[in-house]
Amino acid sequence: MSPHTLILLSTFLILILFLFQSHGDLELSRVTPPDIHDLLPQYGFPKGLLPNNVISYTLSPDGSFSLQLDAPCYVHWEDQLVYYHTQISGTLTYGSVSHVSGIQAQKLFLWLSVTGIKLHQDSRTLEFFVGALSQILPASHFQDVPGCSRRGSPTANLVLPL
Fold first, then answer.
1. What is the pTM of this model?
2. 22 to each of 17, 18, 28, 135, how far by Cα in Å?
3. What three-state secondary structure class fits 32?
4. pLDDT at 29
5. What ranges make up the beta strands (E) of 10-124?
6. 3-state class of 124 per DSSP?
7. Do residues 136 and 118 lie in contact, with contact meaning Cβ atoms separated by under 8 Å?
8. How many Cβ atoms sit within 10 Å of the Cβ of residue 64?
9. Dihedral sign, CA of 144, 142, 112, 98?
């Protein structure tokens, strides 16, 4: 084989490898889902509805979702204490989260399951449904992704979430 042919063949192989590697990177970026916190604004919600320890999630075309946290955690929002289980599920549509399981809020000494969240765009508020009750909070309270605490406040540990 002549040196000219060898150089041409080597250049061709390098080009093929480069193209294959570039195509592989494109495929990888299509498969990797966005961070769940970056996905929430596409549904009208602020990034900070979920703590910073989400390790994976699935979101089906029908809106049903499942989240996996690396550990259960507590998050404090002003005077509100919220507990997140390691597995959270529900249905996500624009401006609404329904059929929620895995999130509880403390009211006095009771832990009540959060069953849904609704966005009120006109007032820039979020309505959290806890059974038949609801509480409205400014969406601005949830702009930053909260850190996770392994323990609640001393009074929160008197009665553990169900």
1. 0.73
2. 9, 6, 10, 50
3. coil
4. 46
5. 54-59, 64-69, 73-77, 80-93, 96-107, 110-120
6. coil
7. no
8. 13
9. negative
